[in-house]
Amino acid sequence: MRKPLAKTMNEIHGRTAWRESTEIEAAVSNVRSVGHDLTSPADLDQLVERFGDRKYVLIGDATHGTSEFYRWRSRLTARLIQERDFSFVAVEGDWTNCYEANRYVKGLPESAETGREVLETFDRWPNWMWANWEVLEFLDWLEVHNQLLEQDDRVGFYGLDVYSLFESLDAVIDYLEDVDPDAAAEARDAYRCFDPYGGDAQEYTQALRMVPETCEDEVLETLTNLQEAAPTYDHGQDDYFNAEQNALVAKNAEQYYREMARGNTDSWNVRDRHMVETLERLQRHHGMGSKGIVWAHNTHVGDARATDMDQRGRLNIGQLVRQHEGASEVALIGMGTFRGCVIAADSWDAPMEELTVPPARPGSYEHVFEQASETDQLLLTDELDDETPLREPRGHRAIGVVYHPNRESGNYVPTVLPDRYDAFVSLGETSALHPFSLHADRTHVPDLYPWGL
């Protein structure tokens, strides 16, 4: 039974010191009684067994710059693919870039020769999320795994996000040039609406704040024309699916930037609805019975209704897929860290740097898990009873790509953890991700997967 969520972190920490101490002790004791040690890939057995038949397994992270999050996520993903026949991985990345990674892992025509060549094309900030050794090792593993499968059975790698407006516009025209030059000319004319903005989505957003003349009709018309003409095209299904998705990205990206220009909080919802729409399209594309794995930040993966996001009118992927499919068809897995290092930046578009993550604040979930065990922990929330003290709302740290360790108070999301996730991975001390731009070769990069994927 879901408990009422405190409205703010001030409410959560406004309790008396005695009450707070008692609640922490009770929560720590509960973790000790139900938590499972996480020390090797074999400890993931319970997740594979419990969630291997789910339609979607969403694996979150508390930062986009922590090596251990990427490594545990890759290990679990590899096992779900190998042992439970999952069909695709969908990540919080741009569709256009990730489709080139998909070409590589599937061995499709005109694919790159190496995974690193693919990842170094990820040039949109924050590119360290994908252009790193951790992701490269997973892509190379997936490419080898796929070589053992028939082409139609190969596991895909796709981007869910909505940011690639201009790249997707170009991709639609390129496709139509091959299958329908007249339609390509019409699309080019429609997309000229965006010409004044020089291929810069932020310029489009700024312009809308001054003169609210949008390109909404143009992107919708091109998507509709493409869908209506599709039965007449002589094309491969993968190529058409990619083109249609790019037209959809263009439509939804235009809406996203339009909402941003209006200062509307609904831009977040536009983005997460688009990611869910893409996820559902991928599942249908891969056929009846196919299953997908999602990689995204905890703020997208964990059910928004178990946080203060719900009170602010925000929804997310985890909430929507639970609502669309039913909770029994979906597994939401969160991750957190007590202390360590992270790759992040001081401001948007600023250079990346390695930053220290200080010990989590007292009373937070991260603090509770650290107090409970010296060993990394795995919590399965269905093993908690209704009266568990872990249902008491408390802070749960979320670190973004812009991060200021000296201003930590704003990084804690009021959360009822058992309602937010089906499982939670708590890591005591973590290390920074290994981007190519900071680690040009493997000389000083540790053995990332000492047990293998």
UniProtKB/TrEMBL annotation:
Top-rank taxon: Archaea
Gene Ontology annotations of biological process type: response to antibiotic
Record-linked PANTHER family: ESTERASE, PUTATIVE (AFU_ORTHOLOGUE AFUA_1G05850)-RELATED
Record-given protein name: Erythromycin esterase
